[in-house]
Fold each of these.
Amino acid sequence: MRNLKSLTICFAIGLVIAVSGQTTQIAKPSIDETLERSLGGNEVDYSSTTDAFHKSLGRIGMAGGSVRILDCNGDYFKQAWSPLNKTLRQALDTIVENDPRYRWQVADGVINLLPAAGEPAFLKTRIVEFRAENITLAMDTVTPLLKLPEVQKAMDDLNLKPGIAGFITSPSRKPFSVECKGMTLRQALNAIVRAQGRGVWGYVETHCYQQNEVIITF
Amino acid sequence: MTVPGTDISVKDVIVGSTTELLATFTVSASATGGNHAVTVKAKGQTSDNSVTFFVQIPTKIRRDSISALQNETGGCGATKTLNYSLLDQAGVVISEDLTVDEVLSDFTSDPSGLQQPDPKHPPANAGHLVDEVGYRIPTCPPPFTISLTQKFTVTVGQTTYNLTTTNSVSYGRDASGNKFVTVTNTTP
């Protein structure tokens, strides 16, 4: 029996550039090398756990994504975030030590911050096919993703609705493309930020009274 | 070749031509911003202090442009694109590639309970920074307004600089279905 993973295909095309008529593959540091990089900076901030995660990745331009599950009380937990003399790995370890509701992992070539209790069912939705070509703003993939029939069916099954995805973000300098087949929604989000190069997605699922809402941002 | 004090060290001095010296200047993280006199000693003679080395301190970002409202294709969102330049204390563009950290605060929403955007960390490539501000949603929501304050920091080595620029950001959709994104910039 073939492993399902072998059916998963995703082409991240953003790393290939044409130089003088030739195609050159940009050499990127490995995840392990990136995890040992120093963050830099001497500030001390009090941040939500996901903000601390986004700041840590953003400080060195590492791609990734975070998952947050909220109830009517929101998330008022704040932790001290201090990058001074910390590698990315040390910063991530500190974040989850301070807030054991979360764990971090390397997945699909990027870094994810997930609830320790498990990944939400919606992110496990399997996408038949998704393609975005020559885009510069990863946010432009959100509505097309949420409009996929299999994603809309999953939202209906889970009684979820899309919320207002507000953002202040920076477009990629170079257009990028992504094509995903047979992968989960989380893997697709990872593929998009990997193709973009340095983006971090955020997934927020809120359950409050009868409102069950999902917001995805980049 | 020397620079007085401990802020800047000079090494690898070589003669480039009869009128040129080449050297490597290493600036400490705690260096004072502004002009630092550079002195050259040769054959018992000392140069005057007419040549200086300027240490740039990231100080503010200047808004260069803001686009018209752009409607989301295939959805009900809207955005505006803003172009900025990262400036030093003398108002000169810092041409290094640096990362800007955006700090968001004073978040309010009507109705209450809407989600605050995640703060991002865009690159300022050669001092040029682009922001897209707004929202995305597949179908049109009821009227809403989200407001927040956006500030910026820049980290160079181990030092983080708070920029003086502040944006008051507001976006939403009114009762008539009109979308809006406003970014009011204050740069002292």
Amino acid sequence: MVLSQTRTEGLLLAERTARSRPSRLQATLSSLARNRIAALSAIVLILIIIAALTAQWIAPHDPTSQDITLRLHPPAWQSGGSWSNPLGTDSLGRDMLSRIIYGARISLLVGFSAVVIQGLIGVGLGLTAGYYGGRVDSIIMRITDIQYALPFIVLALAVMAVLGPSLRNVILVLGVTGWVYYARVVRAEVLSISRLEYVEAARAVGAPGSRIMLRHVLPNATASIIVIASLQVARMIISEASLSFLGMGIPPTVPSWGGMVADGRSYIATAWWVSAFAGLAIFLTVMTVNVVGDWLRDLLDPTTKNDSTTETA
Amino acid sequence: MLAFLIRRLIHAVFVIFGVSVIIFILMYLTGDPTSVMVPNDATPEQIADLRHRMGFDRPIYVQYGLFVEHAVQGDFGYSYRIQQPALNLVLQRVPMTLRLAGASVAISLIIAIPIGILAAVKRNSIFDRISMVGVLFGQSMPTFWFGIMAILLISVKLHWLPTSGYLGPKYIILPALTLGLYTSAVVARILRSSLIDVLNRDYIRTARSKGLVERAVLLRHALKNAAIPVITVVGLQVGYLLGGSVVTETVFSYPGMGLLAIQAIRGRDMPVVQAFVICTAVVIVLINLLVDLLYTYLDPRVKY
């Protein structure tokens, strides 16, 4: 992995940026200004987040209120549509726009919380494996091997089949099954960082292992962790949507984008808008997260500048 | 080489063993499956008898021992819904899923290789920019949505290809394209950056300076070396493709093991779910072994 190969430059940068905090914000802003696509994506993503947070005020209708007389009305600009349901209605007469706005809550909530859980587990195990080495390391790494042999969605589906569909279970399943990338990358970072002199020095003055890891090793691995986390948010949003689409994620009573695409599937020939808009929402959100994630990677890891070799997948 | 193979095989067995533990724990957590297996009017004695016959009243380690003993003989029990051995049901579907995954890899390479090469050679050109936007789209598109939109546009509106099921080779095109979309994006992206990297190397400069035409430089010197990261990525994609086949097969009602698995999961038919998970893991481990062997062929410096 490129991330671990050329650590020295990365470290130099990390140290430099850590020393001069105010200018880091400036650097970030000026980098955003240079990269127009990233800036645009960041703005769209922020708008999506605001929409999710303020859903109860900005959504024109209650996303769950049904009205059979309004069943499968087309979007406003098509004949038969009306501006009271700008994006049309679904098979139970619920307003699509409101459901999509509320759906953003689920997607973002699942995406971000799952990533926090995986990050905590993965970083913890990666630090432990890298720092202690030996048997602890090989046990943890063999567990990651086992998880690599199981496609993420297969494992998640099998666990969901046991636990049953619910918001909490989706977050748990995605959180507990997705930690492998963090563990691998953090371990690699720890292996290269713990040989550096300042870590040796900390060890020599008798600092305990936990302190060395948290105070000296972890801060230098944050750049890689942030990069993985940002790309994982995108993957988790798609995974949640896929699980919900398959009927194994968010229960159908809660508006979720994956569930909406599944609903619309039966009416695809006559009412394209139900699946189309919900899917478009997933696509747009994931794309903006991906662009912002790529930009963060270029910003944090100068060795991959203008280049896209690092794959976390 | 032989030592490497043996080591890898031991590793593979270990991984499969680990997967079996996960599956067993899952099955154990599902609880007692007898309730779905008996008729509604069964007496408590009949249920207790079935529980005993199936071994569900034994301690967990005994149950795991029995599970492994049966599993190594290919016995995952009978499907709760269809009275057939679970492993047979899954194995019958494996060729269909492999065909779909193979077609997806083929389609994604056909799309990605020319794009990746052209984008790298004409770096920063309009073509490069457009194809990188395409890559971003491909990486951000939810598979199931792309599949549904493809059905809407290509099958329902244009009537070019059938919507779902499988009655012949024509039926595989849309599912393979859908499943391969993400892989195409990843491969194009990796090939582009790997080729850009290789084209900046000294030996390429040497090849150019000795007067080779650009075409020969590219085909004979650059591409083989640029292919190594691509092979790695395609190898890593195997897991994605098998996982993604669950979603894609559901969208297109394509009769592979993914569709079977989804039906089994919905029906809580655990023996079939177990057999599916194990088969997936075995396929992935075997293909990754194959990928490792491919490296030695492509890059003689790689020694195991």
Amino acid sequence: MKVQEAKANMLAEGIIAVLAAGFYWETYHFAEDSSLNSFGAAFIPRLVGALVFIFALTLFFQARRVWKNAPDEERAKLAAGKSSKGALTRAFLFIALMLLAASLYEYLGFMLTMPWLMFGLFCLAEKPEKRRYGLYLILSAVSPVIVFFVFYYCFSLLLPVGVLKPILTYL
Amino acid sequence: MKKIFAAAALVALCAATAWSAPKYPRMAITLNTHKAGTSVDTNARILARYLNKELKTNVIVNNTSSQLDAARTTMNAAPDGYTIGFVNNSAIIRDVVGATDFNTVEDMDIVATVTQGFASWIAIRAEDAKKWNVYTLKDLFAYCEQHPGELLISSQRNTNTGVAVSQLISAGLKVTPADVGSTGDRLTNFLAGTPQIFVGAYQYIRQYVQMGEVVCLASCSRVRSKYSPDVPCTFELGYEVTFPSVYYVMIPKGAPQEAIDTLSTAIKKICENPKYVKDLEKSAQEPFYQPYGEAAKYLADMKQNMISLGMGPGYQKK
Amino acid sequence: MGGMNIFFESIGTLLTTPTYLVMMAAFTALGILFGALPGISVNMALILALPLTYSMDTETAMCVLLACYIGAMSGGLISAIMLNIPGTGSSITTTFDGNPMARQGRGGEAMGIGILTSFVGGTLSFILLLFVAPLIAKVALRFGPWEYFAIGVFSITMIVSVSGDSVVKGVLASLIGMAFAMTGADPVNGVSRYNFGFHALDGGIPTTALMCGMFAIPEMLKLVMNLDDTSIEVRQMEPLRGFGISLGDYLRRWKTILRAALIGTYVGILPGVGGSSASLLAYLTEKNRSKHPETFGQGEVDGLIASETSNNACVGGAMIPMLALGVPGSSTAAIVLSALTLHGVQCGPLAFSQDADIIYLIFAIMFVANFFMIAIERVMLNGYLRVLTLPRRIIMVMIMMVCFVGAFSARNNYTDVFVFILGGTAGFFLQKIGIGRAPIVMGYILSGIIESNLARALSISRGSFWAISSRPIAMAFIVLAVFSLVSSLYKSQKRARAQKTAS
């Protein structure tokens, strides 16, 4: 394991170990069941939880050893190293946009959610000077409508209609 | 002036169209059901096809992950009459054993029952029949009396099959239930030799019975099934073991009465359609129409019966 | 020989009836399109095609459904190779070598080989199906819950082999996948687990949403975070001639092809195991047999051949228990079986004598549809290459829209869209620390097989785990699993020591 990976690994494996402990603990809150089988609903989850905890801790200590054994200068350099704030901001915005779209999907419907989501993603995925807003607008506006009606008329699959239900009444 | 005249004509046309169009249904109806490939889905698709023609609208089958999910999705949908659910009484079993977060009978309106079928037949392999000298259900009971707990009987929790197996055990069959999954899994394991007793739908074993590889001992019903007229039913043999599968259509509470009445009438007509009856034969079902009101009472009685048999407390609102 | 006569008559009927030909061509193309779109699984493709068959006669309906099935199974390779997003679960292993080939500018070659080898795999399994289906079906009966449990465990240990250098991370990845699978009602007792009162999760985390999320979201995040990175663009490709590989070169790999076809067919026969396990087992078999296993995952042609041959061979295999026993071998086969029931066809051991016309017609349709598949994909291949030269950033946003459709529509559940996003985000971060997506998804898929079969096995053996020792096939897989794990650990240690010595 390289030194620069060790720090990220320590953090991640630590989080996984904590989650695994929580996963194991939650098995004690399962409803009781009178199984026809000799092991109940909690057996495999406990086994998996315990193993994940053990493996995550093993990796945590492995990463910690690499980090501790690294020369002081290298550690200081890595600790001072700036992660790309722009990249992280865009990643955060991407996730936030997707979650917002998922939250409003039921209420707005497919045809009102996709356009702004797609436009936002097009903009996030390209440098400002290279963006083609006209193309993005056309693609964002037209493709959801085409997809919606193709799926409905050709395959009898009704995507969420949301607030457009009264207007789409005569489908 | 021309523009005003054109707009007025357009409005008049829309009004005329709206006035002459049927009040319900005006748009596609979504029918929530179990996942694709299951017998519930098959029956739902058969029904949807006929509802399409009867209601002259698109009835779209939406597959969910389970019958409870289908019921819950329907219950939570807008009560505008355009979302309905199609499940069978396995959903009520889960209610009875306390595995639901809602009342499967009272928390929604039951439009009508549609079909019913005998869910469970009891069978053993021909080579086992020869080995044990068991050719009737009574023989099986006698054999199990002499070898209590030795034989395994295939079962599946919280399903019609599971209920039939519980009833058989209550009737005195001394076997050990083994939960081996869905009917397909039960059949595969049964054909391989364990469990020794198969309980499940007849269409799965029909061909094996015809080939003589499997001996069908009884159908879990009050009368003989027309799909297996040579096979006695449990009631005629003196065992009160029966739990038919009943399929029904539900709608969210508060849906317009017009929608409920239209759907119920449509289902009645469909159940009287000979083509539909023929289609149902493919999945060993027969029409069983009970209208709005009676259907809910029928299912409520079924649920109460299960509770009084000690199967569970039923859904308790917290 | 009566069956063979009916089969050839059926071929003749298919080739001389324009309706059947048109339907097969159209729905193979549609199936390929669905298979290529991430988020639209094979099952969904069939569910979408099913209502169209209601007004058709049985023969035409079979042409539509089976052509769609074959097209969809093969179509998964397109997005797997070009976008690194498997279109279907059985295309996960295609991403291991197919996408690296695309990044090296060999995308056309990868697609050509994938198409050819899909055809060969499918054809070999159909030939097997034709001659020995009822006999092979009996093999499925020798596999009970203990055997399935053992295969599941063995497959999990094999996953470790594709997890890169760290065995521990490989095992951890598959365990994390298993943990994801434990959400929802447990497969045997129906007890709700890890839904935290959120009943929309009672059905568990859906495969389509998770798989789509794990592969598509990280690709999108990479684009968003690296605006300057041009290496993500698939390199410009020349129009392809032939299938990207000479006949001699392809035939030299006949052992790989045959092994993968047999593994795919055999695993397909086993109800509940599935195409993703088949392609994984075939891929890892080739990797372990190879003199240069280090080339696997870097654009190795044998890896691509093993993956695509086996996943299409699985289609024929899955038909065997369905037709010969009346037991669906996979959830896809369950949909096909349900469609057959809707059209009045009863599958089972007597089907070959009582409904021989329909059964051999089914074989004939699958055989002919395979030819349509290769023809359509080959003709469209240069078109796909041209489409994929469009800016990847635009393509990926369109893919996000399709993934929204697929994630929601699989179960008509809004929660699944959140699973798609959050699962994918988690997959991205896990990937950053060397925990691969493929082992997570495979662990997720295998968890159900392991848990439900262990529960059933213990139910049958009345709680005795030692009953497994009386099952030789199961014991063989357990021994192989232990050997596979120990061997991976040993190789990993050896590699680590070699690296230490070199540095």
